Amino acid sequence: MSAEYMVATYNLSKSYNSVYRVDTLNLNVRQGEIYGFLGPNGAGKSTSLKMLLGLTQPSGGRITLFGKELSQHRISILSQVGSLIESPSYYGHLTGLENMRVMKRLRGVPERNIREALGIVRLEKHQHKRVDQYSLGMKQRLGIAMALLAFPRLLILDEPTNGLDPAGIGEIRELIKSLPGRYGITVLISSHLLSEIEQMATSVGIIHEGKLLFQGDLTELQARGQSSVSFTTQDAASAESLLLASGFQPVNRQGRLHIEGMQDEQIAEANRLLVSAGIPVIRIEEHKKSLEEIFLDLTGRERTL
Ligand SMILES: Nc1ncnc2c1ncn2[C@@H]1O[C@H](COP(=O)(O)OP(=O)(O)OP(=O)(O)O)[C@@H](O)[C@H]1O
User: SUPFAM superfamilies per the record (predicted)?
Assistant: First the structure.
């Protein structure tokens, strides 16, 4: 039924003290995607991802991974999932390589996986250094290497670039982008930054106050943003009353009258009305919303997004 999806949730919900922090979520992640799970702080991203990993019990709804019910096939499913949730766990007094060996024994994978995973995150040169001497970015990359160690079918990353500088963010972005093509790994990654997701995701899900507000690709989202048309006239006040009286809904912004979602005929009609009332029209302009504005509209103008 859901075999086409690597991850599918059905009305997935989680409440704490009877407040729903994840509310009837229906996520669909297809094979080979980089799915960006986007939302402001506190939107419910971590809680959702923890449920996918069996770390938190849902209050309602179901989860399938690889088309199988998580509640019934937990062990076999989770052996094919790699994850990095919150900060990576490691032994600071051990080297990067030693940490990888600990993980290798836990995961029961061959030694060569260590070399390969350290190569992907470009940590080979630092593998003999103690992890408590790593920079934040190196620790984060080690966390990703650990998550990759068993070369999972699905990689779940919760805000993996939090706290990194732009160069570190760029590096992680490039390595994540290479995973579906090179290793066939599907990636589900959360972030509160549109700019980050925009540059790597093939699909996005936008969550706000526990609810999924949009799911699809970015071009679809862009198409959703209604453009507005503005009229600049020599008499904004009279133009506004005339347009209002004719059934338009202009918004006066610094003397320019903006009207949303207008068809071509309506633009011509508004123009004709103004001109025939003796109000000279100086300029008619179209304003397309940027992706950023569309996100801000969706999430109630949260500053973090
Ligand atoms: N164990 C818990 N008990 C009570 N409330 C919780 C618990 N875990 C999370 N919450 C609440 O659920 C909401 C969603 O938190 P969550 O960590 O999932 O958000 P998020 O989108 O990952 O945001 P952030 O990026 O800030 O972590 C928040 O209001 C948080 O306070």
Answer: P-loop containing nucleoside triphosphate hydrolases (SSF52540)
Q: Is the CB of 16 under 6 A from ligand 1?
A: yes
Place of tokens 């094919």: 80
Give the predicted TM-score (pTM) of the model.
0.82
Alpha helices in the chain (DSSP H): 45-52, 74-78, 96-107, 112-120, 136-148, 166-183, 194-198, 218-224, 236-245, 264-276, 291-298
| Binned average pLDDT, 10 residues per bin, the chain of 305 residues | 81 94 96 94 94 95 96 94 88 95 91 93 94 91 93 95 83 91 95 88 94 91 82 95 95 92 92 95 90 81 45
Neighbour tally for 281: CB within 10 Å: 16
Is the beta carbon of 40 within 6 A of some atom in ligand 1?
no
Alpha-carbon distance of 79 to 151, in angstroms, equals 10
For ligand 1, whether the C-beta of 43 sits within 6 Å is yes
Q: Which of 45, 48, 188, 212 to mutate to test the pocket of ligand 1 (most atoms within 8 A of CB)?
A: 45
Residue 211: CB atoms within 10 A of its CB come to 15
